Amino acid sequence: MNENEIANKIIGLAIQVHKALGPGLLESAYKECLFYMIKQADLSVEKEKAMPFVFEEVKLDCGYRIDLLVENKPVVEIKAVDTLNDVHLAQTLTYLKLANIKLGLLINFKVPLLKNGIKRVIN
């Protein structure tokens, strides 16, 4: 599967999670449920994947962690906030650059209709 096919699958699974849980939970609950659903869909997924930061040829552990990395292609950053803002987009772009990945999904579960909380981010 290519990045777009995987991303579409993830979006469908995220919609299922949102329909089951609604918009009022913590980010961690959505992350765990989506992680479970992705595994059930027979896709490889890593949760809280550490991303080292390189400065002057030294790898530093600065605490950068990708919420979900699916099939080593799309980065999935999960939020449960009133409004997505530029900081959330910048965070997702940083993860894409550090992982050298071109597609990310920024998903905000704190919305009445999940399709309004999904942003595709391209590096």
Observed structural traits:
123 residues, alpha+beta, five-stranded mixed beta sheet, two-stranded antiparallel sheet, 7 strands, 38% helix
Written overview of the protein:
The chain is of the alpha+beta class and 123 residues long. It has one domain (3-122). The protein is 38% helix and 28% strand. The strands form two sheets. The protein has a five-stranded mixed sheet with strand order 1-4-5-6-7, sandwiched between helices. Helix 1 (3-21) packs across helix 2 (27-40). It starts with a helix and ends with a strand.
Low-confidence parts: none
Number of helices: 3
| Spatial order of the strands forming the largest sheet | 1-4-5-6-7
Total strands: 7
| Rg calculated over all Cα atoms | 14 Å
How would you sum up the global shape?
Answer: globular
**Series of secondary-structure elements, N-terminal to C-terminal:** HHEEEEEHEE
Report the β-strand fraction as a percent range: 25-35%
Approximate helicity band: 25-40%
- What is the mean pLDDT? 94
Distance between the termini: 19 Å
Q: Structurally, how many domains make up the residues?
A: 1
Class based on secondary structure composition and strand pairing: alpha+beta
Oligomer: single chain
Major beta sheet summary: 5 strands, mixed
